[in-house]
Amino acid sequence: xxxxxxxxxxxxxxxxxxxxxxxxxxxxxxxxxxxxxxxxxxxxxxxxxxxxxxxxxxxxxxxxxxxxxxxxxxxxxxxxxxxxxxxxxxxxxxxxxxxxxxxxxxxxxxxxxxxxxxxxxxxxxxxxxxxxxxxxxxxxxxxxxxxxxxxxxxxxxxxxxxxxxxxxxxxxxxxxxxxxxxxxxxxxxxxxxxxxxxxxxxxxxxxxxxxxxxxxxxxxxxxxxxxxxxxxxxxxxxxxxxxxxxxxxxxxxxxxxxxxxxxxxxxxxxxxxxxxxxxxxxxxxxxxxxxxxxxxxxxxxxxxxxxxxxxxxxxxxxxxxxxxxxxxxxxxxxxxxxxxxxxxxxxxxxxxxxxxxxx
Amino acid sequence: xxxxxxxxxxxxxxxxxxxxxxxxxxxxxxxxxxxxxxxxxxxxxxxxxxxxxxxxxxxxxxxxxxxxxxxxxxxxxxxxxxxxxxxxxxxxxxxxxxxxxxxxxxxxxxxxxxxxxxxxxxxxxxxxxxxxxxxxxxxxxxxxxxxxxxxxxxxxxxxxxxxxxxxxxxxxxxxxxxxxxxx
Amino acid sequence: xxxxxxxxxxxxxxxxxxxxxxxxxxxxxxxxxxxxxxxxxxxxxxxxxxxxxxxxxxxxxxxxxxxxxxxxxxxxxxxxxxxxxxxxxxxxxxxxxxxxxxxxxxxxxxxxxxxxxxxxxxxxxxxxxxxxxxxxxxxxxxxxxxxxxxxxxxxxxxxxxxxxxxxxxxxxxxxxxxxxxxxxxxxxxxxxxxxxxxxxxxxxxxxxxxxxxxxxxxxxxxxxxxxxxxxxxxxxxxxxxxxxxxxxxxxxxxxxxxxxxxx
Lengths: 359, 183, 263
Description:
The complex is a heterotrimer. By secondary structure, chain A is α/β, with parallel strands linked by helices.
């Protein structure tokens, strides 16, 4: 495969195809529509299923149906559409079937706008539907990472039989950047042993999230929680730069993390010992690594394109050991490196003259 | 090398394509590059701009407050971006649609009657190539020969007939950009 | 040998279809869900498709339908069975897929899903139970509740000024080009039940022939929430429901005619 200039939304779609998606169901919404359009062209060409659904509600339930039949299925949308899909996420999680969803987040609340945003952090990490669970949430910061995480999303969905969201924003969705697509995987030949395939020569299989008996439903929840613990144990992912000697670590994911990188480099040039920590999994949040960093840095600066949502997770990971400051833009405003740099240097000036130890 | 370039104008002026052409060409020459559009709800006739970052290093932020180069296709874009260009930066202006001359003394400014020239050579839609040519004359971000090859590839067989006129437009822009501008 | 056979062979005149599981249902006395289940199961048996059928259960009284059909099955969110069935059928066109939905599920919360599935001509079959009331939640007004009908959420009777008139879904769906076969039948007496079974069989045959979307609406009894005895409920279907919801075939697309003539 060669490096080519790819638009984020198209790269996500083609990566899903290469990863072996058998069915795509979606409803147009800016700023993710190129993803749906790419699927509209490519899926029928490859003899795979594509349906433009009547709503996001229908789309996610089509995904649910296809997933029950043992197919790798996905949908994509943007914030208001993701709100509508929450019902489906919950049923999919409750039924323990795999599904992959892309959320190209936009400014809210309500209809908001179509500009880049990270305002869905709570929505996607805390539950993404009623009931007691978290979906797996992956947040790419470049077109290449969008491709890599799209492939990973299908593998994690299958491995854990769970909902996996890939969240980005219009900036990554619309950005063109050099990237390399993976080779085309063959479609899975065998159906999983839990899938609905017709009860030929075997007892019927049932896929449901309904359990009226409370003790039995508690058992279902216990099993689900055990799975989530396993995910939390094994799937925390992050990237970091220049944290080894950092007194101040900037924490940002996706677009905000990427823009912060430029500000962090500038701060380094000015002699400030600043590093960058970029969560790649938003759930499970990379709390282990961040807690260790909290043992030896003087402060964290959380940068988000919202009013402070991941901030809660950073505070929990920091455990009150170090101050956690915040810089955010809302409403679809994208921070520029200059303003993040200002926030970094303002906080850095407030740090005690020496680090707590080692200096 | 690290340049942050904003192309800005009306939808339909080929603003986004000029940026993409730079991005494709920069990739072809092995540079790191990002291209991002800024878009409004309207499909045609509204404002259009894109930011291209070309660098020898992996690119952090694909957005910037103060670009090192702005290529402005119309007067509203001139008004918006002239104050934002980094001191010492480059401002390429479509003089044909300019209402008042640029004011900054700390910028390298090139005035290009791009719409007039494009009309004169019989392809008003090549305005973007003339401005792109003027840009390359002042900042050789990519080689003209690579642009030629990439353009051929992007136009494909269906639009192959547009290749020569676009390259002619690029040459006109290069010629105008070349003389040193005296302030 | 021949003699022994003649004498001892018992003649089975009525048995549980293989497509129904040998479990008690949770339905109330006099409810016709059981009849509808049996008809679907008999058809699956007769067409020999049980082992390649996937049923999609609704939310409502038939929420546990998957426990009663002896086929693979799943449970949809309220109203979304047609979307789920679409997903299944699109990735497994070799399967026979059906949804079994009530009037709240299909004609209220899931109106969008059923209309668009029919519009796309999805190749699955819908069994639509119209009993003019919300059964599972305890007798509230349904989109199919008759004008003036008393329910717990229309205590003065359905007022068409504020609640509108009941929806005739078979007629609505019949108007969509993607629907190949749409019929309404009733379950209030044996003769109508036999007609209902024939319509259900036609609907599945339409799916097997790939002719388009198929739906059979079945007028059903809910004695519990209608506050009637089962015989009264049967009479009410005939006297109150049938005049508003006429029985018959509302859509017989090209190619379906021949199937109707088959026995």
